[in-house]
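Q: What residues go here?
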């Protein structure tokens, strides 16, 4: 979880986890705070293998290089 704090007065505004985009006005100082996630979620294993659903895992390294 990440703490979202006001850029004007450092008051804790929210706690978030995962991907997020948040825009929140601080009730104390009325500063409009806008935060975006800094990184994308991790890709599923099939995406790392080019979408072949793991069929390349059963081949030897030499066979995979020749493709």
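A:
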């Amino acid at each position: 979880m990440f703490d979202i704090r006001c850029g004007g007065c450092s008051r804790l505004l929210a706690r978030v986890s995962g991907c997020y985009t948040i825009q929140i006005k601080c009730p104390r100082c009325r500063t409009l705070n806008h935060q975006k996630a800094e990184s994308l979620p991790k890709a599923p294993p099939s995406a790392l293998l080019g979408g072949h659903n793991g069929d390349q895992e059963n081949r030897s390294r030499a066979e995979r290089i020749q493709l």
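A: Context that may help when evaluating the design: The chain has one domain: 2-62. The CA atoms of residues 8 and 67 lie 56 Å apart.
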